C-alpha cells in the first residue's frame, strides 16, 4: 500500500501532484489514515485496502468518505514545500508548521518505517514529527470540566467551572493543570476559533447553547432540582465541547485554545453576550447570510460536494426526529419514576394497615422494592438523557457547522466568480481605452487588470484550498462520528442491561417474601 | 365496532384467586363463554352447568348485558334477608371510551406519523382494546362465580332467573330519579352511621367487630389510594412502550440511509427497540392484571364489607331502641307484649346478623390473603420473566454490536 502512494520528489513532479489535487485527492496524507485503513488495524472503520487505490481516480461515493483522511501526514511538508501563502495569516503566527499530525494511540509504529522509506528526504521534518508522535507524543490529552461553583450574587452572579487538562503533549507547559472558566469564556473561545477557521473550511465544533431562562434561575439562587439539573447539563455539555475541540488536530495547535486551557487569567469575552452590540451584529450577519445563500446558484462541478450536501441534509432531518422521540422517552421515564415512588409510599401505608402479619410484611417489602425500582428509573432516565439524547443534540449542532462550512465554500466560489467578472470588465475597459488612446488612464487600466488577475488566481486557489480542506475535514468528521455513535450506542445499551439486571435482583429477593404469606 | 371475541375458558386474567376454586364446584358452575362487543354494549353469553334440582335443564345458556348484572347485584343488596352477608361487588361498567377515542384519533389521519409508526400504534391500541375487553369479561364472570359459590346467595330466586330465563331480562337502567335516590341513600347511610356511633353513644360490645370496623375503615381508604397509584404506574409503563415506536422507526430509517459503518448498529438498535416495546407493554399489562385489578377488586370488596358492618350497626341500634321502647312500655305498663315481641325480633335479627357477619368477615380475610398471595407471587414471577427476557435481548444485541466494531 505504501508503494502505491510513493510521491515523487517534489521538484520534478509538480504537474501530477497538481492534477491529483485538482481531482480533490490529497496526495499528502497522514500515516494515521493509512494505518487505519489497513485491515489489520483495530480501528472500527474497516476500510478495505482497495478503496485507497481506487480513490486516486477521483471523487467517489459516500461509502469511501473515510478514505479521504489519508491526509495530514505530509501536511507539514505541505506548508513547507507546497506552500500556500494564504495559510499563514489564518493560522497562528507559529514558526513551526501548525499542522502536525496527531495519531490516535492505537495506531503506531509498524507502518512508520515504510512511510519514511518511501517519503524522500524533503519530508524529513514531517518524519521527525511523526516519529516523535509515534514514540511518546501521541494524541494524549484528557479534558475534564468539573466543580461548578457560583460566584457572586444576584444578576451579576455566574457559574465558574474547573477545566482540568491531563496531557503528555509537549506543546503544553505542564502535564496536568487546571483553570477556572465561566460560560462566556467558552463562548469566547469558540468565537475566536470560528473566526479563524470556519471560513477556510474547518469544522469547528459549536459551543453549547445559551439559556437565559436556565441561567436566570441559577442566578436568582433557586436551589431546586431543576437548577442543579441545568448546571449539570451545562457542565457535561462544556466537557463534551472541549473534548471535541481538542480532538481536532488543527484546532489543538491553536494558541487561543492553549491559552484557554492553560493560563490562569483570561480576558473577559464581552462580545458573546446575547444582547451586546456584537451579539446583535452577529444576528444581522446571520440573516444576511441566509439571504445570500438562497441567491447563490453554484455550478457544482464536483459531485462529491453535492452528495455530501444531500447526505448531511438527510442526516440532519433524521437526527432531529430521533432526538425528539428520545426526549419524549426521557420525559416519560421521569414520570414513571415519580409514579413508582408515589406507589411505593402508598403500598407501604397499605402494608401498615393490613392486619395479617405475613401479608403486611410482604406489602412492606413490595413497597421497598418499588422504591428501589424508582431509583433505577431515575438513573436510567439520566442515562437516556446524558448518553443518548445529548449526543444526538450535539450532532445536530455539529451538522449545522458542517453545513456552514459548505456554505462558506459556496461563498468562496461566488467571490472567485465575481473576481472573474470584474476582471472581464476591466479588460473590456482597457480595450476601450486603447481605442480612445488615453495613455495615462491606460496605464491605470493595465494596473487594475494585473490586480484583478491576481485576485482571480487567488480566488481560484482559495476555492481549491477550501474544497480540499473540507474534503479532509468531512472525512475526519465522519470517522469521528462513526466512532462516537458506536461508543455511545454500546454505552447506552449497557445502561439498559444494568437496569434489567438490577430489576432481576430485586424481584428475586421479593419472591420468597410473597411466597411466605401464609 | 362489531367483533365477536372468543373467550377461552379458564382465562388467566381473573382478578381473584377464588375463580379457580369456584369453577370446579360441580353442583353449580357458571362461566361466561363468549362475549360480543357492539356499539355501546357488550353482550355476555352466560353458561351454567348444574346438578341442582331447581334448574329445568342441566346445561343452560343465556345472553346478558351489563345492566342485568347490576340489577342482580341491587336485588341482593336491597334484600334484607342477605343483610348479614357481604354482597359480592357488582362488576364495573365496560369502559372502552378511552380506548375507542385513541383509536379514532389515530384513524383521523395524523400526518406526522409514518406508515410504519401508524401500523404499530394501531397494533398497540388494538391490543389495549382487547385487553380491556378480556378484563371486563373476567370481572363479570367472577361476580357470578362468587354468587354461585355462596351457600346462601346461590339459592336466590333472582339468581335463577338471571341464569335461566332465556328471554331478554328487560332490566332498564336506573332512571335519573332512581340514581339520585341511590345517591341520597348513600349520604343518608353515612350520616346515619355517624349518628349511630357518635350521638347515640352506641357501644360496640364485641371486640371482634370493634377491631374489624377500625381495620376496614382504614384499609378501604388505603387500598383505594394504592389502586390509584398503581394505575398511574401502569399507564407510565404504557407511555414508555409507546415511546419506543417512533424511536424504532427513526432508527430504522437512519439505518437504511447511513454510511455503511453505522448501518448495522442502527438497524440492530431499531430491532431492539421494537422488541423492547413489546416487553415493556407486557410489563404494563401484567402489572395491570396482577396489581391494579387486585387492588381495585379489594377496594370494592372492602366497601361491601363496610356496608355489612353498617347494616349490623343499624340492627344493633334498632335492638337498642327496641330495648328502650320495651323499658318505657314496662314502666307505663302499656302495650308491653308488642314491645316485647318487637324487642325479641330485633334481638334475633341482630344476633343472626352478627353471627353471619363474623363468618363473612373471616372469609373475607382469608379470601383477601390468598388473593394477594397468589397475585403478588405471579406479579414477581412475571416481572422476573420480562426482566430476564429484556436482559437477554440487550446482551445479545451488545454482542452483535461489539463484534461489528
TrEMBL record, chain B:
Gene Ontology BP terms: protein transport; retrograde transport, endosome to Golgi
Cellular-component GO terms for this entry: cytosol; endosome
Keyword check for Protein transport: yes
Record keywords: Protein transport, Transport
Pfam family of the protein (one): Vps5
Matches recorded under Gene3D superfamilies: Arfaptin homology (AH) domain/BAR domain, Phox-like domain
GO molecular function: phosphatidylinositol binding
InterPro entries attached to this UniProt entry: AH/BAR_dom_sf (IPR027267), PX_dom (IPR001683), PX_dom_sf (IPR036871), SNX5/SNX6/SNX32 (IPR014637), Vps5_C (IPR015404)
Family: Belongs to the sorting nexin family.
Protein purpose: Involved in several stages of intracellular trafficking.
Name of this chain's protein: Sorting nexin
Gene for this chain: SNX32
